[in-house]
Task: structure prediction
Amino acid sequence: MRILVIEDESKVARAIRKGLESEGYDVTIAATGEDGFFLATTMAFDLIVLDLLLPGRSGLEILEHLRKQHCPTPVLILTARDAVEDRVLGLNTGADDYLVKPFAFPELEARIRALTRRGRPEQALKLKLADLEVDCLARKVVRNGREIDLTAKEYELLEYMLRYREHVVSREMLARDIWQAVDRATPLDNVMDVHIARLRQKLDAPFEKKLLKTIRGVGFVMQEGNG
Amino acid sequence: MMKKLSLRWRLTLWNASVLIVVLGMISVGLYAVMGNKLEAHVDAQLDDGYGTVETVLRNSGGDAANVRHLGQGMMFRLNQRGALAYQTEAWKTAPWVPVFSEVSFSGASGSWHSSEGRHFRFKKGGIPEYDMEILFAADTTDRLASLRSLAAILIAAIPLALVMSLQGGYFLAGRAVSHIGALSWKAREITAERLSERLPVHNPDDEIGRLAAAFNGMLSRLEDSFKRLRRFTADASHELRTPLTAMRSVGELALRGPEDVSVCREAIASMLEEVHVLTQLTDHLLVLARGDARAATIAPRPMDLNALVGGVVDELGILAEDKNQALSATFAAPVSGIADGPTLRQAISNVLHNSIRYTPKNGRIEIRTSATTDGRAVIDILDDGPGIPAAERERVFERFYRLDKARSRDDGGTGLGLAIARWAVETNEGTILFLDKQGPGAHCRITLPSA
Result:
């Protein structure tokens, strides 16, 4: 799986490369718009991560040219936070998804997975992790043969994290996907913490093996063991 | 041309032209009135003299000899049966006698100018019974002369008045304008760094005084916004520096310590938490900056406020539950308002979150919706927490204003929640304020235009 990252900030580019390589992607970095455009038109990639704010050639221009040449590669654009117009413009120009800077790495990873249709969140109706079983149709949660009674929010959180199991989900992802929060200026962090604490209380407290883990400063993950 | 003249000259010229017009009108009027009066006076004299002569003649049966005693002061002539019967001395010596045959008195009265410039008025009549004709005259030369000299005086006075008015006007306009000049000099000296200075107000009741006062009012408002901006910048950098300092010291400490992975991981996690704080802070600042720039996309439409409030209560309820607080929502029968959903939700959410945060465990929080009789929608949020002192109720909406400096930051507050709430409500054309509350606690009221 080859990914082209067109990003001029070398620190960000390096971090993205490291992160994605650890997930098994083959990453190429282009530091300028020209390089990026050249690489994108001469080599085959499965995905392009495109920063819209680039020296030389603007990200939007590159996107426009790629789409004009009927390049089918999915493009994920990175935009500055206050550039709502850029985002809309980018999506209209043919971007497949966007991410607002500064972004949490788990989110970038989740978007890339979704766009490349690899390791996409399971659509399965039954989810399993260790001795935990979730029936998505009946919204029934069973651990070690015992049914666990969850509130609607707790269930939604659990199912979401379970579909991303082994991958960290960030607070931003939860805010957007579970709470449908459009902006990030609402006091959701505390709400999230309480829900997670309660879920953990019901899900993990009675058992020795803990499945729901908090990655401090990053987010939450459902996983077996400490991997 | 007119554009290039100074205000002082324009005032002077206007002043002078108005004066000329007024003087001209007065002069013409005065001349006409005086002329009329004189003429009427002459005619009355003429009628009077003529009447006397006629009466005497009638009483004496048409004997011309009886009018001789009427004296030489009068000027008349009597014709009887087409021939001269009598003429007074004055008539006899009058300058028209040589040309009398040429003068025809067709009407009952008339005027005659002699070639020497003398002027007379005539009245003609007769007594048909005695076949008598009376010609009566009066010398009006002197009277006409005084009218002429009046005209001369008036005509001479106008240019004089013009000159004086130009001088006086220029002087007075100069005085008036000099105040304006002083004001503009002073105003030019007031810069962003010296906004505390004010323009001098000599007389608060005249126009210049009012202008200066208006400028001073504007300066006050400017100074106020500059102060707020400065404080905001200082506060913002302080708020930004706090997490930055934490990140820096955590990082430095971790690098200085032993090469222990778990210590490093701990440090990184702690730094990421600070990054989260910074991200939130910039998010909040961005919301406000967009609001300030009026760049936020707001789409107000009629909406069910009960549903919106219910949604916020559902979302934040768990926080109250966690503190064992009784959070109750009371909805009046359908309350709808006109607002942009997401921004209004943000406002209600921030206020309610504050209430939950500051109300102690086991406290009570109530949120109510209602509609006023004058057609506005009201959302009340009441708690029995520590409340807000009356003096602080306006200031709590300021950016980074904190009642309890140490506590709220630990709770993850950015100090911008209420500022955002106010922006969100006001951008929806509503009002938000803290009211007096019976008993302890705070009472926040949001009022919105109703659908």
